[in-house]
């Protein structure tokens, strides 16, 4: 499982998603250009001291990412989807792609996705913050694929407590 961020434009959201990836053992791909300098103070504030633990790969463009991305289904999270993430069956090798906070992804990126999913929301709401969306969908994907069980203490450790 991976997170891929398409041309993110809000540094604190990227920092939050890098911290999420570090804490859950999930690699994060950044597809540039970013809408801020990558070492921005706001990014560092959000990622805190988790930056060293984050597995981050930066890609200079969508073209470069498309050519070199890891294998797996590309799952785009978008408000334009009809299928919901709660009804989707995730796989271990899925890549969750999130678009720019200000504009989502362009049509060619939208069409490149293997699947498009949305988060059900109350009527007349535009969208949920991209970092929160990543956490919601990634959490469900990791639950379905049994990823969280790798973090549970063994029976022997539990009995010692």
Describe this structure in words.
The protein has 161 residues and is an alpha/beta fold. It has a single domain (2-160), classed as Alpha/beta knot. 34% of the residues lie in helices and 17% in strands. The chain contains 6 helices and 7 strands; from the N terminus they run βαβαβαβββαβαα. The protein has helices spanning 11-24, 41-47, 62-68, 107-112, 130-144, 155-160; strands at residues 2-6, 28-31, 56-59, 74-77, 83-84, 95-98, 115-118. A 7-stranded parallel sheet has the order 3-2-1-6-4-7-5. Helix 2 (41-47) links the parallel strand 2 (28-31) and strand 3 (56-59). Helix 1 runs parallel beside helix 2 and helix 1 runs parallel beside helix 5. It starts with a strand and ends with a helix. The relative contact order is 0.20. The model has no long low-confidence stretch (mean pLDDT 89).
